[in-house]
Amino acid sequence: MGFCKSITQCLKAGPLFVVFLIVCCRSNATNTKSDVYLNEWAVEIYGGNDVADEVAAAHGFVNHGLIIKSKDFYRFSHPKLKKRSLDSSYEHLQNLLTNKKVTWAKQQNAKRRVKRDLDFDPNTGPNDPKWSRMWYLDKHRLTVFVFQAPSQDPNMGVVEAWKLGYTGKGVSVSILDDGIEHTHPDLHANYDASASYDMNDHDSDPMPRATWTNENRHGTRCAGEVAAVANNGVCSIGIAFDAKIGGIRMLDGDVTDIVEGLSLSHENNIIDIYSSSWGPDDDGKTVDGPAKLAYIALKQGVNKGRNGKGSIFVWASGNGGRYQDNCNCDGYASSIYTLSISSATEHGTIPWYSEACSSTFATTYSSGSWQHENIVTTDLNHGCTESHTGTSASAPLAAAICALVLESNPNLTWRDMQHIVVRTAKPDGLHTSGWIQNGAGRKVCNSFGYGLLDAHAMVQLARNWTTAPDQKQCNITVISAEESPKFLKSTRSLKVSFQVTSDCTVGQPVERLEHVQAELTLRNERRGDFTILLTSPMGTTSQLLEPRLYDSSSEGFTKWAFMTTHSWDEDPHGLWILEIRQEYNPSTSQLTGTLSLFNLVLYGTSE
Ligand SMILES: *[C@@H]1O[C@H](CO)[C@@H](O)[C@H](O)[C@H]1NC(C)=O
Ligand SMILES: *[C@@H]1O[C@H](CO)[C@@H](O)[C@H](O)[C@H]1NC(C)=O
Ligand SMILES: *[C@@H]1O[C@H](CO)[C@@H](O)[C@H](O)[C@H]1NC(C)=O
Ligand SMILES: [Ca+2]
Ligand SMILES: [Ca+2]
Question: What is the residue range of the signal peptide feature (predicted)?
Answer without folding.
Answer: 1-29
